[in-house]
Design goal:
about 425 residues; Rossmann fold; OB fold (Dihydrolipoamide Acetyltransferase, E2P); five-stranded parallel beta sheet; 13 helices; 18 strands; binds iron/sulfur cluster
């Protein structure tokens, strides 16, 4: 069956997979496409051209990317799609293999391939890449990427292969982007990078995140600034007093630790020991009291013994982090750890993840119950059957907990900051009513 999509139809759709950094890339791309007068289709099935911004981080993510491409290829075969473009990390890493396997795909591009994609979709347009980001998140929050790439040598990680060396974004550009997003209604900035704490080292010769944070905090309209993806080794401690002193910087820090056993950390090439990690957490908590600490761990790393895993469980039980995520080790080509093989069976990895998250569930319930009777500030996200879903300063979007708010007498809107009296708690969520005070 021949193509049924009218060729003059310049509608385009973007499907974004993977992390918040990919979300920012797609939003920047959407801004350029919009400025080039391309129109956005509601969904992939209604578009003339489809761009899939893929993820190539670990097995599960790669699988999801490949399945998404195959679905789009079927649309193309059925004549429901004219141009299929694959971009992002998976394509950056495996373009040749994918090209051989997937002839339906018209173009494979890597990461940050904005101008290439534009040339395909708008060939006759002489155009500078100037468009404003088109947000795909609710308009009251946005991810803010302050750098690209990573110089760290973590043994298990393929990101430097896909995203290249660390490149800080100039401070002026970041502040200009914040002001433009505030004009679009953004109140919360979720600051992301591969390694947040490396900011400035390549461009200014020093780790200058503390200075950047002060300037970001001075942006009128930025009500919450939230820090994600801090790297524990060589942590710039001078950011801590800035977090403590500035009201609009969330008392929140996401710092993936990946493991705690010094043997495993050494094999992972994380550049830090258990002792130094605990000392750092101690300092963070003393300089920024009541800070919410989030971390993620890998279970089933090739050299992880039962004793190493038990040590990780003891650490999580003792240190009582506020938010914890866990991933199964995924053996990735061309990484340092690849030669170690992948000897731990998946069911053992699954079992370890389950045990670790079970420990965290108990800690999370204990911490949530301690909030009953307090009044906290929350950001309203949406109205779900008359009850409002919200997040507190302790909750990053898409990965952390929620606060459910009853407000029978007053209508609330997404993006409203309100005070809530907490009346109940579960392992992961809080429940309360709009404060009358
Ligand atoms: S810090 Fe390590 S885990 Fe994170 S992106 Fe860089 S190499 Fe990968």
């Amino acid at each position: 069956m021949k193509k049924t999509v009218p060729s003059h139809d310049n509608s385009v759709a973007i499907v974004t997979l993977g992390c918040s950094k990919n979300t920012v890339d797609s939003e920047i791309l959407a801004g350029h496409l919009k400025a080039a007068n391309l129109t956005f289709a509601e969904s992939a099935g209604q578009a003339n051209s489809l761009i899939i911004n893929t993820c190539g981080f670990i097995d599960m993510a790669k699988e999801e990317s490949i399945n998404t491409i195959l679905e789009a290829a079927a649309l193309k075969k059925a004549g429901k799609l004219q141009t299929l473009i694959v971009a992002g990390c998976l394509s950056e890493r495996y373009a040749d293999d994918l090209r051989a396997e997937m002839p339906e795909v018209d173009h494979f591009f890597g990461t940050e391939a904005y101008s290439n994609i534009l040339k395909v979709l708008s060939p006759d347009l002489k155009y500078n890449l100037l468009g404003e980001r088109v947000l795909s998140t609710p308009s009251h929050f946005a991810y803010l990427k302050i750098s690209e790439g990573c110089d760290n040598p973590c043994s298990f990680c393929a990101i430097p292969i896909m995203r290249g060396k660390h490149r800080s974004k100039p401070k002026e550009q970041i502040i200009a982007e914040m002001n433009s997003l505030v004009r679009q209604g953004v109140k919360e900035f979720v600051v992301v990078a591969q390694d947040l704490t490396y900011y400035g080292l390549d461009m200014y010769g020093n780790r200058t995140l503390a200075d950047l944070l002060k300037e970001m905090s001075d942006v009128q309209g930025a009500e919450w600034i939230r820090l994600m993806y801090a790297y524990p080794a060589k942590f710039p401690r001078d950011i801590l007093p800035v977090i403590a002193e500035r009201d609009n910087i969330c008392k929140y820090l996401d710092m993936p630790l990946q493991h705690i056993s010094t043997n495993v950390l050494k094999s992972m090439r994380r550049g830090i020991t258990r002792r130094a990690t605990e000392e750092l957490i101690g300092e963070i908590r003393s300089v920024v009291p009541n800070i919410t600490l989030r971390s993620t761990f890998i279970v089933g790393y090739p050299s992880e013994t039962q004793a190493d895993f038990d040590e990780l469980c003891d650490f999580v039980s003792e240190v009582k982090l506020d938010r914890v995520g866990a991933f199964l080790y995924s053996q990735e080509d061309d990484t340092y750890a690849y030669i170690l093989g992948d000897s731990i069976p998946t069911e053992v990895k699954e079992e370890r993840k389950k045990s670790l998250m079970e420990i965290q569930k108990g800690i999370s319930l204990e911490k949530n119950q301690a909030k009953i009777g307090t009044t906290i500030k929350v950001l309203i996200e949406e109205n779900v059957n008359g009850e409002y879903q919200a997040r507190s300063e302790a909750d990053a979007p898409e990965v952390d907990n929620e606060v459910f708010v009853r407000s029978p007498d007053k209508e609330l809107k997404p993006g409203d900051f309100v005070m809530v009296e907490i009346e109940d708690a579960s392992e992961f969520d809080l429940y309360g009513s709009l404060s009358r005070k």
